[in-house]
Amino acid sequence: MVETNEAMMGIFSDRLQQVAPSPIHTFSEAVSDVPNILKLTIGEPDFAVPEHIKAAAVAAIAADDSHYSVSAGSLALRKAAHQFLLTRYALDFQPETEILTTVGATEGLYTLLSAVLNPGDEVLIPTPAYPVYAEMTRLNGGQPLFVDVSDEAFLLTPDRLRAILATHQQVKAMILTNPSNPTGATYTPDELKALAAVLKETAILVISDEIYSELQYDGVHASMATYLPEQTIVVNGVSKSHAMTGYRIGILAGPAALIAQINKVHGFVIMTPSNPAMAAATEAFNCDRSLIDTQAMKAAYQTRRDFLVTELTALGFEMVRPNGAFYIFAKIPADLTQDDVAFAYDLVAREQLAVVAGSGFGPGGEGYIRISYAAAMPVLEEAMSRLKNYVANTRIAV
């Protein structure tokens, strides 16, 4: 083992010192070696990638598709993504100039924030929210502006947005997640239209994270880009919809003038995405087959959601019924410890069951836990059996 020169520890940027590791992955890794551990922590679909998609990647390798593409990604992929967005959501982005291929949605988010933020710029983040939003903002010199929407069914309202903007003049961008991680909440067309009416009065960029768009259960997924196209960048990809998390292919879609500037950063960060992964994603975005692939997965997730909502409600947990993604964000019952971090670690210690503490998702998450149901029914049934044991043995007088 190489010993670090202690003087070297001072070389890191001030921005990095403000950043905390992901509470989701830190906790999940910390408990991984616990014997008999059952983890419902990571948003990792348990499904196999569909065979026709895997075959496309294999074919690309066999054809020696091993040379540089362009930083925006293969035109074939961008055309497939264009058709996917147009057919599924009536979003008409031109593949040549308005779609950018990224190394997963995460790289897309980071590149986008890097392209737009100056020191001191604020990024409005309705919380509870995916923790990487805030940390990416800090890494790029910005300041997260948390807006706790836990008392509003986990949705940002126009009145709340207008009030926040009246007192914060440095807001450069807003990150809107639909469907939401961690809550599974979704916005209706009317709700998005009302938010867009407020934002049209500003020059604020809307970063619309729609990575779970194919996993909306009731109603049709609505995109902010429908109502505010000139100010919105859509973030999407194949990781969640097609169980392709390891392929690392996402997309950004928005006005050509904005995408061109974002691509400057993107090209320097990653040069080009992986060709075999892009070939697989091109096949995944094929609309006819894509719908078949995702519908089967979505039906399974809905069954799992209904099972967990019933079981958790019977145990005294309260939640907004998730309408998308594959998470339940549940309020810990009053007769159990309200320290969600302590709850999560105690649940591991007593029952070898891992869920994520809600406080890691920002203001409004305290006293909640996030449960991922991207796991097979037998796993979820065993998890609920362990949670029942925990609740029965640890209830306190209130």
TrEMBL record:
PANTHER family attached to this UniProt entry: AMINOTRANSFERASE, ASPARTATE AMINOTRANSFERASE
Coiled-coil regions listed in the entry: none
Database matches in Pfam families: Aminotran_1_2 (PF00155)
GO molecular function per UniProt: transaminase activity
Cofactor(s) this protein requires: pyridoxal 5'-phosphate
Keywords, alphabetical: Aminotransferase, Pyridoxal phosphate, Transferase
Family: Belongs to the class-I pyridoxal-phosphate-dependent aminotransferase family.
Cited InterPro entries: Aminotransferase_I/II_large (IPR004839), AspAT/PAT-like (IPR050596), NHTrfase_class1_PyrdxlP-BS (IPR004838), PyrdxlP-dep_Trfase (IPR015424), PyrdxlP-dep_Trfase_major (IPR015421)
Gene3D superfamilies: Type I PLP-dependent aspartate aminotransferase-like (Major domain) (3.40.640.10)
Sequence ranges assigned to domain Aminotransferase class I/classII large in this UniProt record: 36-378
Enzyme Commission code: 2.6.1.-
Protein name: Aminotransferase
Source domain of life: Bacteria
Species name: Leuconostoc holzapfelii
UniProt keyword Transferase, yes or no: yes
Top EC class for this record: transferase
